[in-house]
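R.M. (postdoc): so does anyone remember the format we settled on? I'll just put the structure tokens first.
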């Protein structure tokens, strides 16, 4: 999946991945995709809920070793 921007939130604990995601999303245009890399296990639930509450489209998530990767399309 082709992301417009990649956010490295590895090593950050809650709520920092969400804070960084929100800031990165503000820099994108509607329809662009943000790829987030995180290591906080809570990020899956947090980012899913955050995307839904903001009207963004949570595209998918996958795990690569200990890194959680997420793709969110800006509303």
């Amino acid at each position: 999946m082709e992301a417009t921007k990649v956010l490295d939130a590895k090593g950050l604990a809650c709520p920092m991945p969400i804070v960084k995601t929100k800031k990165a999303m503000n820099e994108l245009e509607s329809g662009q995709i943000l790829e987030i890399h995180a290591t906080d296990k809570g990020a899956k639930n947090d980012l899913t809920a955050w995307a839904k509450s903001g009207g963004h489209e949570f595209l998918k998530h996958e795990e690569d070793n200990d890194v959680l990767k997420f793709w969110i399309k800006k509303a």
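R.M.: ...and that's the designed sequence above, right after the tokens. Also worth knowing: The beta strands are 5-9, 33-38, 57-64, 67-73. DSSP finds two helices and four strands in the chain.
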